[in-house]
Request: fold
Amino acid sequence: MSLVSLYFLLFLAVVTLVYYLLPGKVQWVWLLLAGLAFYALCSYGLLIVPVLDAVIVYFFGKYFETKKQKLLMLIELILLFGILILLKYAGRIGAGWSGFLKGFGFGQIAAYAVPIGLSYFTIMAVAYSVDVFRGTVQAEKNFARLLLFLTFFPVMTQGPILRYDEVSKQLVTPHRFSYQNLTFGVQRILWGFFKKLVISERLAVVSMTITEGWGSSAYSGIWVIASFFAFSFRLYMDFSGCIDIVIGTAEILGIRLPENFNHSYLSRTIPEFWRRWHITLGTWLKDYVMYSITMSRPAKQFAKKAGKKIGRKAAATIVTCIGILFVWLVYALWHDISAVFLVSGAFYAAIIILGTVFDPLIKKFRKRFASLVESIPYKVFMTVRTLILSTIGAFFVFMPTVKDGAAYLAAIFKAPTGAVMQMAKGNSSLLGATFLGLDLPDMIILVLAFVFWIVVSRLDAKKDPRVRLSEMNIAVRWIILLLLVLVVVLFGKYGGFDTGSFVYQAF
Reply:
């Protein structure tokens, strides 16, 4: 059931109505049933996996409350990630083993049994278990409440990745109906629909038109660069639009979820970009991968011994760089086991490691040329540079192979030979022409919608636009909202591409 479907809106309406009619002490039970129903409506066979994960972390968590055994923690991690790997990659593993697994029908079973959100609720389960093992949270004694945490239906498509200590109390605390929660939640959902259906789906046409035509040199040179920007903003609108819908859905139910984006394209460095993009995944990797490596006993022993020979700062830098390598290795493998993801992870890791190694020189440069660093042209240059680098790394993973990605990058230096604007047969007017796959009305809608998004984003950087809207005259407020609804309904693209799914949902 797609988050941008009428079925989801009807499902949410029923869930919300019953939720606020029920006594507060049993609202969380209804949320649990809604989560299980959400899976059941997608496919009855999906329920077993999140339930199995919940069973594993429940019993291991209860044991870790009394005894901390690293071997058992390792066994639990193997079980959780083992389920993820077997279900997600069983088909490819079977093919690689000359059909050995497929001979037992495992590939077909796995194809059916891979649930939506598998990667997301797996690392949520891992985070919960590690936190219990570390003693930062108490193990949940009520299995149903733990299952609710792992199956809270809005977050299962693309996150955000939840931490148990952030949302566990919210999920079980009684919530009274709030008009502000309802209106703010609906507005956030509407904004997500706008970004996904009006902007992202049109940018998808542009990026796919260029990427599918580059092999014949029709869209080489500057058009390859244009596709980078089209793809980058398409991915952002798609991913952040989904998160808007998720956060708005939870807000209607009185539950505050963590933000997953923070004006990512204002970043001036790659590390800053990843602190603003997919924030909950970034903090998960930092807390459960980076710190686990850099604060481990072997890392401390190495830093102590190496520090005597090469200096404490140099030794600390080496440990940090090793941690960065592991972070991006986990990032790549969590998405997919293909070479393009490994190259993408290595690309980002190399940039961040270079920044870490040369950080002392960078600081000296910034200090010596402070006026230049604070100038608007320099800030624009840094922002555009970061946008280009982040886009190249992300774009690579959507190419079939590493070789295709390299060839596509090389096409930048070729002169385009094809006609960018194509006229319909027997029609020489602009209305009968397509530009990068879009006709003139669609191109105008895309440009106007993009400008509107920029304006709202600028306002959002200073004050929540929903708060601004609530302070306006009620007539003006409703006119603006109704216009936005009409824009989504009339100008949303519902065909041509699979608008029922999101780009990042595949991971």
The chain is about 70% helix and 0% strand.
